[in-house]
Amino acid sequence: MESGDKVGKIRFETMANLRKVFLLILSTIALISSHSFGQSKQLKIPKNDFWYKYNKQKLEKLYLTDLTKSTTDSHWRLWYNGQTVSYAIDIVNDADKITAFVTPYTEEFVPYENEPQTDRIYTYKIPLEDSIAKNILQLINKTNINQIPDEDDIEGWGHGFDGVTYCIENATRSDYSFKSYWSPDASETKEAKTIKDFIGKIEEIVSIKKVWLKFNKYIPFESYNTGGPMVPVRALTYDQLLYYKQDRASYRKKMTKRNN
Q1: Which of 23, 40, 74, 200 is most buried, judging by how many CB atoms fall within 10 Å of its CB?
Q2: Whole-model pTM?
Q3: Rounded to 5 degrees, what are φ and ψ at 111?
Q4: Do 205 and 76 share a structural domain?
């Protein structure tokens, strides 16, 4: 064979191999894109999405996962939107490993007209024992709490501006739902009773009263609330008032530097 023929054959084989590699890359990209598209969730959010948006804006400050984008087998969350302090309880089930944690939180409230609000949140996560996590998951499955519709789809469920609101998020790899329930105590529906009993049991399982006692003891703000009209008033000395005022001023100065 002539040397020129050999070179031509080598070039042909090289081009053929490159073409195979190129097609393989295209197939891989198509497979990944198809898989990603298939993993996008079907979202079920109420038409009245006030509480969905209200809680969603807190996720970053509370270091909580956006469940519309979660990648675990399942992730369930209960929100307690109270007057002065609130919490979220998360149950994560992934690859048969169940974990849970409670996130209590409150927001600083500045009670002076000549001072702007700080938008500070005090929070931390409390990991729960595996046995507690399993008990909560069993309770969720036993009560079929995820099958109860949103409050707007329950005949006879009232609405108000006081009281508390509970919200439930439930996410799998393919679906996401959000539901809210204003003051189950104020409703006489059978669904309200189920939700009330469920919340009472879950709060007992996680010992929420102990969580509150410890959390309230270390709140670093002069005044605080989580959106309600009630604001706790502390009996403080002049030196304590001055300390809180200086602390707020220092925080605002730090945030101004960070944003500039």
Answers
A1: 74
A2: 0.82
A3: -90, 25
A4: yes
